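Sample intake sheet
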Amino acid sequence: MYVHPSAVIDPGAVIGEGTKIWHWVHVSSGARIGSHCVLGQGVYVGGTVCIGNRVKVQNNVSIYDAVVLEDDVFCGPSVVFTNVVNPRAFIERKHAYKTTTVEKGASLGANATVVCGVTIGQYAFVAAGAVVTRDVPPFALVMGVPARQVGWMSIEGNRLDLPLTGIAQADPPDSQYRYELRQNRLVAFTKKSPAP
């Protein structure tokens, strides 16, 4: 583990081996961060936050209480998380935090905003500047304000040539996976294994 001298790690935070924590990061007591993660300059991690393994958080991201980042998640610079739907400075609402989960392998582009209480599915891709106000399906590419699905992404992060809904298949030649669209759900298979 590497922690830059300017970083503040409160007692009681748990940080896995091989994780790198850079300039002016603050990790609160109780936070759990997995192994081989990278937290860029100016990142804040709340006390009930859970971060998986191999997560990359770019500069100036605040990860507030009730946010869960699963393994292999990417957060671009200045991604914004929230934890209260209707905040007021003069009303205490810590009892009303809503859990936000970013599932394995998902990517959040620079300056994306994630409104609390949503789940961003595995390997989903949120475009830069998007505002996520509802759940994002696995492998979905969403963009805009509010974010809307405009396509599908591969595990490697390449756009797939598939319609948004229906029955279709994609077999990218440069991927070890093939994909099957079943109505509005995308499923990935390794090319070695037959479809169930």
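Comment: DSSP finds no helices and 26 strands in the chain. The chain has a mean pLDDT of 96.
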